[in-house]
Amino acid sequence: QTFVELLDVLDGRRDPKTVAGLGFRDNGSPWIGPERRWLGPDAFPAPPYGKVSVDEYLHPSFLGRRSAVYQASIGCPYSCNFCGVISAFGSREQWEDPARTAQNLGYLVERHGVDGVHFYDNNFFLREDHATELCRRLTPLGLAWWCESRVDAMLRFSASTWETIKRAGLKIVFFGAESGSDARLKRMRKGLTIAQTVAVAEQTRAYSIIPEFSFVLGDPEDPEDDINTTLGFIRKLKTVNPDAEIILYFYTPTPQRRGTYGNVDPLAGTPDTLEEWIEPDWVGWMTHRDPLLEWLPRRLKARVEDFELVLKSRFPSVQDAKTRHWGKALAQVMARRRWDKERYDNPRLLRRVREWARIPQPDRQAYGHLRPATDTGT
What we know:
By secondary structure, the chain is an alpha/beta fold. 39% of the residues lie in helices and 16% in strands.
């Protein structure tokens, strides 16, 4: 709606200062209009799949030969103070009606042969009744799918609901575990404990669903202790559920509505122009791969990178389509002793083997899990 009203502004039919959700420069000074009340998926027409070349967006993945993406809700009702989603949506979430979700996906299955779906909802499961209805409607479609969920939300589900979810085709579920420290989880306002993360690792193993745990490393107040504690916790998770996949990010602050994790200024030193944001150093910041942070020295980043390489070599990802089978097997053997002895430093030979075994990938742009498989997941 903001964009539609902006077109009126550009045509000279409306004052830009009356458009909610619009920001611009007024005589060189920034003007931020009032926040627009956002609407859920059901407030809009069904996706106009007939007007786009859907097949161009379907790619092979771990889930199937023709994987698509879909978003059945927007927003998030939680208040984690390190996450940009909360800044955008203000701790609110709105779902699409489950019948409509199934109808839209059914169209993709029937017309385009879609066999896998990545749901990009920030929280696919919150209420048990909603999860049950949605999964019952998805089951007849025969899809394999990936989604994001909260650890505590799924731990509240009954055994029958877990069975319903499994029958519906869930293969991998992404959880924001974030830290190996209860004290840090509390300061993040995450609302979780490490015991709950361990419990959901056990539960997913019992139902043969792969958990994907994400961690945010580099607490500004004590990054070294944070990294050491969290890497130790990851070892415990891999003992509880060897199939668990691990994703590691370095913490980069984002503006918050109420306080920022680590008590840092999220905008300090950040660029003022789009041209600066696309420079390599700031791309590293935005992707959390190699951000330039005064509290995170290169030696700590190197420790995380070395640990990650040993980890993903010892436990190859089921989603890794970028490494040849012989490379995975050789790296797994080479990494076993390092993992068992907790020796991660300077794994140069492992890195070389993985470079030799890489399969050339097409240079295409795609979102999230439909990008060509990278080395970030373990």
